[in-house]
Design goal:
The protein is α/β, with parallel strands linked by helices and 316 residues long. 39% of the residues lie in helices and 17% in strands. It has ten helices and nine strands. The longest helix has 21 residues.
């Protein structure tokens, strides 16, 4: 038989470990989905699980493989049910590995959609991380840390080759890893939106402690000195019209929203899910209320999620 026609040898796996059944038909796109998070100890499994939890996945940590099939079978396509399950599994022994691979084969046979996300890192990075937390490698035993890492790599070699996604976290910060995970699993509809709060306040009562940005609108004339407006607030139409009708008010709101948009987009990239824009005037009842509402209205018109809070309304 020539070299061209010689068939490729079957994949090498540890003795006694079953191969995944890849002959089963693929699942349909509308079925519940399962993600298996596995990989090297210290490579970022816990952080990956936290990111998926933020994306509204139901996350189970340290799940025995034999329970995975039963748990996946309880998933539902109905509203309010669990449709996206992420299971963090930790392969530390030959028997555990055999169970996991068999369960994955059963999942495929049952036409349950799943993906394997394998977290890896260089030996140097893993050693550094374990030394930072002053913990031994779980497979180290009486040997060196590198012995435990080598044993884990041997046990995981076959599963790593079957992974749908392999993430090398050697040079990734926790924020970089979060972005990588979101890129792998998140769609536009799954991505958590940035949640913006505009807070009106009075400077004489102090700055809001949670303010990310502070806007000072005391450059505008104060409606407090207009007798017919003094008893009203910026939520009342006469005050709103008065404030937004002042010279420079509308231009300021438009310019501020334009300026803040790149910042808001950057927060999404950096995994900052909440931002508070504090808008202040003297007492927090007229100008700040009207301008914070105007900023919120323009941001909502751009499709952003915004709520308004008027901290100092009702104060004497």
């Amino acid at each position: 038989m020539s070299e061209e026609t010689r068939p490729e040898p079957p994949p090498t796996v540890p003795q006694g470990i079953p191969l995944l059944d890849e002959t089963a038909p693929p699942p349909s796109d509308d079925r519940p989905e399962v993600i298996i998070i596995t990989g090297m100890s210290g490579a970022g499994r816990s952080r990956t699980a936290a990111v998926l939890e933020d994306l509204d996945w139901y996350v189970v940590d340290n799940l025995p493989p034999r329970m995975l099939l039963a748990l996946a079978g309880m998933m539902t396509q109905t509203d309010g049910g669990v449709r996206r399950l992420a299971a963090v599994v930790d392969v530390r022994s030959r028997e555990f590995f055999a169970d996991l691979v068999q369960v994955l084969s059963d999942l495929r046979s049952a036409r349950l959609d799943y993906r394997i996300v394998f977290l890896d890192a260089s030996d140097e990075a893993l050693v550094r991380r374990f030394e930072q937390v002053r913990r031994p490698h779980p497979l180290q035993g009486d040997g060196r840390m590198l012995d435990g890492i080598a044993e884990e790599r041997r046990l995981l070699a076959h599963l790593r080759s079957r992974a749908d996604v392999t993430l090398d976290t050697s040079d990734l910060s926790v924020h970089d890893l979060a972005r990588a995970v979101r890129d792998v699993v998140a769609t536009e509809t799954e991505a958590a939106p940035l949640r913006i709060t505009t807070v009106s306040f009075g400077f004489k009562y102090g700055l809001p402690l949670d303010a990310d940005h502070v806007v000072d609108v005391r450059f505008l004339k104060n409606p407090y000195w207009v007798n017919e407006l003094r008893h009203l607030t910026g939520k009342d139409e006469p005050v709103r019209d008065y404030v937004l009708g002042l010279q420079g008010a509308e231009d300021f709101v438009e310019a501020y929203v334009t300026a803040i948009n790149p910042v808001l987009d950057g927060y999404l990239v950096e995994q900052k899910p909440y931002v508070t824009i504090a808008v202040g005037c003297t007492g927090g009842k007229h100008r700040s209320v009207a301008i914070s509402e105007a900023i919120a209205t323009r941001l909502r018109a751009q499709g952003r999620t915004v709520r308004t809070v008027h901290r100092d309304l009702g104060r004497e």
